[in-house]
UniProtKB/TrEMBL annotation:
Coiled coil: none annotated. The chain crosses the membrane at residues 27-49, 215-241, 248-268, 280-302. Keywords: Membrane, Transmembrane, Transmembrane helix. This is DUF4436 domain-containing protein. The keyword Lipid metabolism does not apply. Pfam families: DUF4436.
Amino acid sequence: MNASPTPDAAPPDGQAAPAARIRRPRLAALCLALSVLGVGYAVLISDFYHLTEPTESVFRERQADARPPLDIYLEVLAVEPARQAIEVRLDFATQSNSGAPRFPGLPGTDILVEVNDGGDVQEIALQAGQPAISKTLSLSVDGPFENYPLDRYDGTLRIRAIEGKDAAGGISVPLRLRTWENIASWEVAMSPRYAAAGDKGLSLHVRAQRPSAQILFAFVVFAGMILLAASALTIGGLVFLGARKIEAALTGALGAMIFAVPMLRNVLPGAPPLGVRADAFVFLWVQIGVILGLALFVAAWARRGPPP
């Protein structure tokens, strides 16, 4: 009587070679996936290490003026994509050499400051001998919010100051604008747009966009959603075709995937409302794919499942 082979016995040479050939492509695919993840992680870390320290930007009028300027300090408070607006705060100063760049000083005369964002003109009155209070304004910007996370918003800001209480016929006051553009979750940049000869005031181009790390995070979440849909369709499709046996534990896994996809959608940076293009291209079809995978699994269970 021949002895039965032990479980630890090596397979025959004819079976070992095909198995090794099958494992090689799988090993190569696994190494490729790990390499891509490693490169992405290294790029992300290098991007963080190359971040520059935020600094103040100073803008002056092109026309030389011997008179002391009116200092304006502009700080970006918030970017609101749904409203297509940028919230800023303006502080005014008539002296900037008393130990701090925002030393207020008292205006020696009445000054009317006009802030124009291309669609709305807002006036700020500074009274002679009175402290200038901070002013919060909403600036209109243009940009398609539907392009999240690659959305970008552009606008124009024009500021001029005039002596007196009436903008008509007043004498222009020279300006010096300091800006602080650092704000969490956004990259805001301002650049000068010099006015034509004879025009007074400052004109700036304003641009707000999401940082690269936030964009990468959003795309990683979208990739995770797609992998969930692919896994659900693979499980449901193979079981439905009879290539894999029915296992009750997979029902719970597929059901959890249905609720996991909306949770991944809710952790996207910036919490975009439903309706952006990424929802039409990714989220909607991923959710349908996961539900279809569960439906295929249930259909196979109803047809071939064990009787009670």
